[in-house]
Amino acid sequence: MGHPDERSEPEALLYTRREFLVHGARAFLGAPLVMNCWREAYDLLILGADVFDGTGTEPVRADVAVRAEKIAAVGKLSHLRARRVVQASGMALAPGFIDVHSHTDVELLVDGRAQSKVQQGVTTEISGNCGESPFPLLGEEGERLREGWRERYGVTVDWRDASGFFRRLQRSGISVNYASLLGHGTVRACVMGQANRSPSPEEWDKMRKLVLEALGQGVLGLSFGLEYAPGAFARTEEVVQFAGWVAEKHGVCAVHLRNEDFRLLEAVDEALEMARQSGCSLQVSHLKASQPRNWPLQDSALERIRLGSERGVNVHVDCYPYIAFGTTAQVLFPMWSREGGVEAFLGKLRDGGTWPQMAAFALDKVQNLGGWQNILISRLPDTANRAWQGKRVDELARQQGLEPLDFLRRLLVDARGDVSIVAFAMSEENLEKVLAFRLTMIGSDGNAVSPEGILGRGHPHPRYYGTFPRVLGRYVRERGVLPLSQAIHRMTGLPARKFGLEGRGRIAPGHFADLVLFDPGRIADCATFEDPHRFPQGIRLVAVNGEVVVEEGQHTGAKPGKVLACPG
User: Fold this and answer.
1) Binning pLDDT at 50, 70 and 90, where does residue 41 land?
2) Three-class SS string for 10-42?
3) At a CB cut-off of 8 Å and minimum separation 6, what does 41 contact?
């Protein structure tokens, strides 16, 4: 885990003309038994694709043979026989995409097909981000999470720790490979509740044991959500201490920065300092400069990260290709109002003494976002009016005869704080700068959802369905922000090395056959903010561990995914 990225030469099994003729002669002269063995030697044979091997080098026209769950050969292989042959002339063949910033976890127990992810070419998800993970489950926090999943999804929780959750996932069957970080906020809440203070010696010891236990059970590292309670209550010293425990096991620390708007640079400095002091491998989550007045900060943020890398910090960033973020509506209010958990937050919303201060903060934040017309409601619980999902706050407030802030206040109370929003806050110019940055990986910052059933509820951010095709279509083909080979490297080989995913992220003999076959001239996202539950176009085939899970836009129903647990 956590090795710095190194560019390597493509490793392909290429047949010389002489070898080709020798194999052909043997096949022609061999007994029928030999011919039958050849026919059954491979499960999948992809012919004539432009093969992008995941290293960032230019593609090679080649054939790829798959046996069981591994890539068996790459080269001139049309003389071979397989149970399934795919003619791929004019198509690009890449390693399956690795979503380095996912929030999929319990959703896989609702629908293991991971439809919105595999349909866009994702074969591996790295979840547990922004300080939240589905484990450990202890005390009042554990009970709150259990009850929330039961109410929202009907899922019965039978696990306490990472290994229990991993076993449950593997038993249930999943179409995508799954790996996870441990959430710092979840650990803190299980031990300290929502307290805004430093840990006691006893609490330090409990949290250290939980972190080391999870690392020993196979999590890839730790995530921080320093803009959310209770992670935001951790001082830098606490963050460094947690990161040090992760560094001992060569894990990755993914950081949702403490601030992504007017204090962006200070937040970047804090993350870099954490990595310097602890020695951990750092991933800066969904890097952005939010709100128009802060857009000029983006260049300085990238420069600081570049300098940190040159000075020895193992740092990368991730981003999604949209100029709107998605989060909880609670972030529009000051951090002190979120102390103590949801019930305390709702009490402050109702309290005439605290409301004026909360309102002033929220109005200033919304003004900096450009106004209420830039905020839409993306998800509400069953108890709220779901017809409001996908609508702008100013529009809904007018319909109700209320000021927008008063409308949002009532909505938060009625929904018991469970209101998700999408806010348009970033610039296209800055987005392209981050995508072009050599240390950038791609992450959806979304869950695996579906157009139907429980996971079809809500009006999610279109990144849930379109992140990877949007990069390849809009920003590679149309805008020319970066070459196709580099974009694929950022989605495959680079994250595989960053997270120590052995045998993933490459097209080479012996590697796992996580593959995506797509039309580079046609691939595009189709999900929009108005109509988000739409699969992309241009993806012909997706294989996970050698088994086809998507073909011509249709899910096959196969669930060959694995839990990728790294030994701590």
Assistant:
1) confident
2) CCCCCCCHHHHHHHHHHHHHCCHHHHHHHHCCE
3) 67, 80, 81, 82
DSSP state at residue 181:
P
Query: Does residue 322 sit in the same domain as residue 336?
Result: no
Between the alpha carbon of residue 106 and those of residues 109, 206, 481, the distances in Å are 5, 25, 35
- 288 and 339 part of one domain: no
Domain with 202, as residue range(s), is 97-326+439-457+467-498
Do 186 and 108 share a structural domain?
A: yes
CA nearest to 495, candidates 223, 255, 179 = 179
CA distance 482 to 501: 25
What are 92's strand-pairing partners? Answer: 50, 518
Residue with tokens 């922000």: 481
Q: What tens digit of pLDDT does each residue of 175-207 get? A: 999 999 999 999 999 999 999 999 999 999 999
| Domain-located, residue 346 | yes
Of 384, 405, 386, which is closest to residue 394 (Cα–Cα)? 405
CA 531 – CA 83 distance, rounded (Å): 39
What backbone phi and psi angles, to 5 degrees, belong to 281?
A: -85, 125
Give the predicted TM-score (pTM) of the model: 0.92
| 565 secondary structure, DSSP code | P
Contact 182, 207 (CB under 8 A): no
Q: Can you give the three-state secondary structure of 261-316, one letter per residue?
A: CCCHHHHHHHHHHHHHHHCCEEEECCCCCCCHHHCCHHHHHHHHHHHHHHCCCCEE
Q: How many domains does one find in the chain?
A: 2
Please check whether residue 489 is in contact with residue 439, taking contact to mean a CB–CB distance below 8 angstroms.
no
Q: Is the dihedral of CA 36, 41, 46, 49 positive or negative?
A: negative
Q: How far apart are CA 370 and CA 363, in angstroms?
A: 11
- pLDDT digit string, tens, across residues 445-496: 999 999 999 999 989 999 999 999 999 999 999 999 999 999 999 999 999 9
